[in-house]
Amino acid sequence: MSPNFPNWTKLAGVGEQALDFALKNVGTLTDRVLEGHVRLGVTGLRRAGKTVFVTSLIDNLLRGGRLPFLDAVASNRFLAARLRSSPHREVPRFPYERYLAALTASPPHWPAATAGISQLRLAIRYIPNSSLRRSVQPMATLNVDVFDYPGEWLMDLPMLNQSYREWAAHTLELAERPPRRQLGARWLHWLESVGPNDRSDEAAAREGAALYTDYLHACRRSQANLSLVQPGRFIEPGDLAGTPLLTFCPLPSPAAEPGPNSLWGLMAERFEDYKNTVVRRFFVEHFARLDRQIVLVDVLGMLNAGPAALHDMRMALTACLEAFRHGRGGWLSRLTGGQIDRVLFAATKADHIAASQHANMRNLLDMLVSEARNAIRFEGATVDTLALAAVKCTETVMTEHQGRKLACVQGTPLGRQRPTVLFPGGIPDGPDLFPENVSQPYRFLDFEPPAAVGRDGRGLPNIRLDQALNFLLGDHLA
Amino acid sequence: MSNATHQAATWLPPVEIDPSRPAQGADETAFAAVTDSVAARVNRVVWPRSRWTLPAFLGGVAALVVVALAFDAANLMDRSFATSYALGLLVTVALAVTVGTALKLALDEAVSIRRLRRIDTLRADAEALVAAGGHGSAMAFADTLAGFYADRDDLASPLESLRLAVTDAHSDAEVIALIDRQVLTGIDQRAYARVLCASRDTALATALSPSAALDVAIVLWRNLKLVREVSTLYGARPGQFGSWRLMRRMLANLAVAGVAESASHAAVDALGGTLAAAVSTRLGQGMINGLLTARIGLAAMNLCRPVAFTAENKPTLRRIRAELLSVPKDVL
Fold first, then answer.
1. pTM attached to this predicted model
2. ipTM of the complex, rounded to two decimals
3. Where would I find the H helices in A37-150?
4. How many Cβ atoms are within 10 Å of B236's Cβ, its own excluded?
5. CB A345 within 8 Å of CB A373
């Protein structure tokens, strides 16, 4: 054999390898195109139950034993779900196992408040419903991205559309009203000692920010349980604790625009920095490309806290939902993402009241979110409301009390060891929520997670989580 | 403010109730009230007429016939014993067998009619529960349904999954929906397959049969068989007369449905028929007979289901029509 003679067998081998490689890549590429992707936005103000909801959602999808209202499960097309690593490597993983361990420990306890953002991807394998699609694709995959974050950060979103002047005026006006006025007395007093035209002074900015942060903390801790607390990072700084980004506060608006070297100029600059580097990044990375959204509302907590809290929450919800892009997605927007076409408002902790009250709870939620719902409907997205509980902690029982039959709940109230039966009170079915002659009409108690929860391997017990999932993901699992 | 005072009167503060006291189950009086109201509605007289003349007349005739038959039988026994002891014995045995089987048949019919009535009550109860929109009463309904299907081995696992799926947090309408999804959907699919099969059978048989009389016989026999199959699947289990009764009710139902059903359905049916008829009259006739059988089968499904179909899961003729149109292709 001459040395110049090409080695055909080797070349053929190379060709084969290239073909093999190409086929394999085409395979993964088509997989990627054929696999469905849904970014599910779990939205909720502080203590609405986002973390527990995400944990229960993952657990129930992984085990699939308690989702009779999810169509794919009911028609036996749901095969299984698995956890996958999220494609966004820089975001911490949602510690599902840790939260589940907390809920199923003995004695069980609730996960601590969320301090940072975390994310997880869940792959659901199912059999397509249409026979045509089944012949091409005997089983399909849907990737669901969920993420968890402190609810305080959500309150930053309305700031995106505001200038410092607008924001300061709005916040100051709010702070002058009754429940907040006492809470922010020290900060308001400090405001009187400084003028917007004062020279730019780092120490003054620090002092103002510290006082303002105290005021925000007081708002949160107060009896009225106020929701409209901006900026969220002042409360839950995450990795920004102590940075100059968090040293500003609203100042009274001056008549003429002060120079850049004034205190006002300094604050306005920091506000813009905060908006651009913190809020906009948070929004773009996590909220801008959502496909589906669930808004969790702790209706019972708000009823406990009184009319001021209810009003505040209503304003906060309406304001932060305006930041999202809702609309009716065609196939193009399905490919590119970026429009939320289904929004579910859910009243959480429905297990704290007797099940016969759920209809009233849902009606109340309907009433509370009516403005936000109409705005979203106007954009073309589908909206529904629901009363749910991510982890069901109580049983509804009927008891006789002073000659009246009462629908009560049986469970272990928070901080106690033994289960008890109690009548939690009802939700009125009319708009007259707070009768004038009763000082504190609502005292809904929180409950401990039930003992031995989830031991049966069917997933965490829940109320209407399956209906929520069917509304949010059902059409993707068809 | 009358509203505020009213609320203050009924308002009860949140209270902890003695944990040592045992908890009771769901409220059952509400369920009894619901069923009573349903019964009252069902029993309402629609057409005022004398209700007892016709039954009294028929009863009298039947009594006369029975007495006459008894006399005849006694007479026959006397005469055969007079002829020979063996003949007398034979006649006695034949008589005993006849009377015994007649009783058995009557009993079976009574049982089957009772089961049909029970299905009617179940369906009315389910409708009333959904309409009332309450909570806690549907558990009793689920128990009744489970009892109704207790002897069915094939439904054991759906009933078990229903038991696991229903919790105390579900409202009545949700429990009914769960029954629909967990238990009845499986039966629906099997019944639908039977209907499909029967309508193909009649379509083929009428297309191939040489005479019109044979057509009629085949269609009648196959339809009766289909009705029995479908009603057995849903647990109605009709006897001979029971299926005739069912058939009669269904024909009435069909006559009404024919008027009420949307004009588009009728138009498409007719168009499908004429298209096929253009290819062959026989094939067209077969097609029409097949569609008729299918409609009778679907009506039977509607009548025998313990929970009425909802708008989403109502079986339609569309798929059967498509299947039927593919039959000539398969055969030729």
1. 0.80
2. 0.81
3. 50-63, 71-74, 96-104, 131-136
4. 26
5. yes
